[in-house]
Write a structure and sequence with these properties.
The structure is a single chain. The protein has nine helices and eleven strands. By secondary structure, the protein is of the alpha/beta class. The protein starts with a strand and ends in a 7-residue tail after the last strand.
Length: about 300
């Protein structure tokens, strides 16, 4: 049995990338984000946001490759009337307004998958993903919130609303990847963990604690940690559909360097970066070859105890 286990998970953000900047962005980075948003808006009509998740799903299906999709709760919807959708409370930390001068839900005017496809993936999930044993499902916040910066009541309303959104189309969310990887804070390390256990989440992607806005997280290759009934899967690295061949080579080499580790290698990506299937196909073929040579075991989180 290979020592190194491999997990692929996908942060599914749709158009949230264009509407929600990182709390860690400097003024210069916020400016660049605004420019990217304008450029992205111009080109999304010809190359819709949903094309990214379609490329990933089709490639994984064709190659019988399992993955965990942690989806922003709003994206499970097929339509809505705008905020408030379920019981979610608006984030209270002022960082968001200070960055862009807008209310958190300024983008949500209440539409559907035909009029505003970037915020409604429910139809696609039901038709192309639901019931597929290769795919496990989870949450990525509800509207891509920075959870460690919020009080417990806000965090719980976000998790609850995400669970309700997925349930609405018959999906049980059992995994969680926090937006911006902000899972735990030194001052209140267990807030999110306690809430996830309450809503019967089984697995959470984790990379260490932060301290407020100070990032102290890091990539690593570790065994799965246990927090009572919650599996904490340490994040090992990211790759994107927009990576160059040189960057992809580094990603694959890093996996190969860890094959003797008795641990889990958790690799993440974002749906919206996969305008083509070139990089996801390269990764899948490489890992399937490694599995055939018994160098790794590719995990399906559906069957993780």
């Amino acid at each position: 049995m290979p020592k190194l286990k491999f997990v692929l998970f996908v942060d599914v953000e749709g158009d949230f990338y264009y509407y929600v900047p990182s709390p860690h962005f400097s003024k210069k980075e916020v400016f660049k984000w605004k420019i990217n948003r304008i450029i992205g808006k111009l080109f999304r009509y010809a190359n819709p946001t949903i094309k990214g998740i379609k490329n990933i799903v089709n490639t994984l299906n064709e190659n019988n490759f399992p993955a965990c999709f942690c989806i922003a709760g709003h994206l499970y919807l097929t339509e809505c009337n705008g905020w408030q959708h379920f019981s979610e409370k608006k984030p209270e930390n002022k960082w968001y307004y200070n960055k862009i001068g807008n209310d958190w839900y300024y983008w949500d005017l209440g539409r559907n998958s035909k009029t505003n496809h970037g915020f409604y993936f429910g139809d696609f999930i039901k038709k192309k993903m639901k019931g597929n044993k290769l795919f496990s499902f989870g949450l990525h916040g509800f509207a891509h919130e920075a959870l460690t910066l919020e009080k417990k009541e806000v965090v719980e309303s976000i998790v609850k609303s995400g669970a309700e959104a997925s349930k609405k189309i018959g999906i049980k969310s059992e995994n969680f990847a926090a937006p911006f990887d902000m899972v735990s804070d030194e001052k209140k390390p267990n807030v999110l963990f306690d809430i996830l256990k309450k809503y019967k989440i089984k697995n959470v992607i984790y990379s260490g604690l932060d301290n407020g806005f100070e990032r102290k997280r890091f990539f690593d290759v570790r065994k799965i940690l246990k927090n009572e009934k919650l599996n904490m899967i340490w994040l090992s690295d990211y790759f994107e559909g927009s990576f160059s061949n040189k960057k992809m080579k580094r990603v694959l080499e890093k996996i190969n360097k860890n094959i003797k580790e008795d641990a889990v290698y958790c690799l993440a990506t974002h749906d919206f970066t996969h305008k083509t299937n070139k990089n996801i196909l390269k990764l899948v073929k490489y890992l399937k070859k490694m599995e055939k040579e018994k160098n790794i075991e590719i995990l399906n989180l559906n069957y993780l105890k």
